[in-house]
Fold each of these.
Amino acid sequence: MRFLPVGLAAGSLLAAMTLAATAPASASPVAKRQTTVTALGYNSTDWTYLQVPPAANQPLFADRSFDDSGWPSGQEGFGTVNGTCKWNNSTDVKTHWAVNTDILVRHWVHIPRDAQQVRIQGTVDNDASVYLNGHLLQTVKSGNCNAGAINVVVPANYLDCCNLLAIRGHDYGLATYLNVAVTYVKPTPAA
């Protein structure tokens, strides 16, 4: 068996200690991974909705305290089965939304307090105003059913554990479609 000279062994030990002391925090065994979780999926049920004329004033429908108990309940996608959008079919449209009208939709969404990067994504034909807990997050001018036109990350200070997602969809004629999902990133300890 051979031994390293004392000076070389001491130098190696000192170098190893220096590297360990300056290692970045990301090298720590408790580093976190991220998992994307769906809080509200596409084609979800239990939406309350109301179809209104385009000029109808419904200023408070996006507020958490608004009473929608008299509204019908339906499933996404909202839309028509005739049109040029690839989702205008009986498989993807679950609740009828008449052309040349606006649709007001509301859904409660549970999001854990440690959730990060809460994102609302979806498709609308033609336009939409997207709200969370009464805050206007995005106004979308989609035109003809552009997939992913609704795409917004919710500011953390707008979140609560029980959140109201409200959307006003607007149609210009021919066909309609609206379908959204809500996801968030949840940090998880590394294995």
Note: The domain at 31-189 is CATH 2.60.120.260 (Jelly Rolls).
Amino acid sequence: MPNRYKKNTSLRRASMMAAQPVYQEPVEDSDEITIDLHELWTMLRKHAMLLVVLTVLCGVLGGVGTKLLIPKTYSSSASIFLTPMVSDAGYVDVNSMNSNEKLINNVMTLIKQNNIMSRVAKDTGLGSSQEAADALSVTNTANTTLVTITAVTEDARLSKNIVSSTVNTFIELMKDTLNVRNIEIVDQPKLSFVPVGPHVKRNALIGAVLGFGLGCLYVVLQVVMDKRLKNKEEAEKYLGIPVLCQLPDLDA
């Protein structure tokens, strides 16, 4: 009898312990952040007015700021051509054409050399040869011996004068020092008072995109930083125990 009593008592204690709910520590996933797309879309719709205001405001600031704060720039260009040798019968010398194609990279480098830029700076009243070189860009049309020299400054006349001085000085030095006489000016520099910069519309568009991006970032951060438990599934996952009842939302 005593043994049977002890055995029954042990069984009752074990059954009582099994009936009690086992509490587990809350599970926090610190390594992975998940975003509910439905919740994110709901938040974006909720803050739609904020997104519109930020987009318009940043776009206007980008356009107006560009127009008021960034000075206008003006451009002038000229083109030179390395002409091939032509025989008395009117045939183009192929070897001369190949030679000019190999020479074109050297020509583009020589144009912005310090000795040429120094004379350009002196002719145009610039402070240094580096200032003249910074205003210039030299490009080559692919598969041709046509070189385009372009100057962009805040003064339309200065841009034209820089290009004119650069082209004339370069051709003169090439004739005197290297005896190269097959360089022709095919497009003279022109004076244009139509500004080439700044790009107001482009900067306004960039500002609008940045404004929209900032608004979206704000909404995403709100969703990510919100640690509240919003439904039964999140509560069960966080607490590690089943939810026995759920009260209805009286405000819905």
Note: The longest helix spans residues 200-225.
